[in-house]
Amino acid sequence: MNHSSMSRRNLLHAGAVGAAGASVAFVHKPVLASQPELPVSGSQPCGFYRFQIGEIPALVVTDGFASLSPPHPAIAPQATKEELEKAFDDAFHPRDRANLEFNILCLTIGSDTVLIDTGMGPLGGPTSGRALANLRAAGVEPESVSAVVLTHAHGDHIGGLLGKDGSSAFPKAKIFMSKAEHDFWTGPSPDLSKMGLPAERRSGMAQAAAKSLASLAKQLEFVKGGDSPLKGLTIVDTPGHTPGHLSVAIESAGSRVFAISDLAHNHVAMFTNPQWTIAFDTDPAQAAATRTRIFSRLADERARVFAFHLPWPGLGRIGKHGTSFWWSIEPWAWQA
Q1: Class for the domain spanning 25-329
Q2: The pLDDT value given to residue 42
Q3: Potential cystine with 160: which of 60, 88, 121, 333 (Cβ 3.0-4.6 Å)?
Q4: Are 56 and 109 spatial neighbours (Cβ–Cβ below 8 Å)?
């Protein structure tokens, strides 16, 4: 067989594979209540990913994802629809939807099994609530989890703390969170007026957070920026998305990963223009200022970054071009 026929055969084979792949769509669960359901037609089997941070074995498990469809104005309300679409087009991002992954980090630090956030749990729809099953598939039983670092009290981060019966999903775990965050959501009237969500949705978020935190009161311990609740973990205050939003710096044997949580929800919009925000920000101006400050630092340090909402498995680095940034996905490693 000559080169031209072999090339043609390879191309035909690649086209057949591509066509088959195109027929397998992800499930899209709308985040905003007004959005229509999208059809279920398939799923991917991989639910966890192992890597290493120095001497710390690390594991990412997916709780699933949600989808904003259409993305605007929930994403980048400061921009016009056309400006956001231009940024998406330049990055080969679809115009009609933006997926928000729910990437949960699990660390083994000595005898401790530590989670950073917990996903939606029973609060989620058909495309989320998979964290416990994926933890078990990776060999981690909920009873073995000894610590949870809660970056903030939105449902996609706190929902997995409780089971369907309302009991603690991780009964032996200490739950570390910001006191400012706790007090905000458990107070009489948390100010959500700057969020770009309907009043009913804002009220529901506040009620769910207060109920969950009350149920877990005996497991809570408060931390603030600079604290080190476990060896190798340093808490960093990154307010704006919520008043007590936290990030976590993880260090071991000269290796470092910075878990940014919700400093970014999309790998194009918030990097193209860090002033572009999302409807779920409690204080959009502060969120943008914090993002710009932290992104600049991480870009200068060429730091390895873990992101809760960015493309699976959420590992990468942040580059900088002028006043814009860009997300460089870390290539998948077949051996941790």
Answers
A1: alpha beta
A2: 65
A3: 121
A4: yes
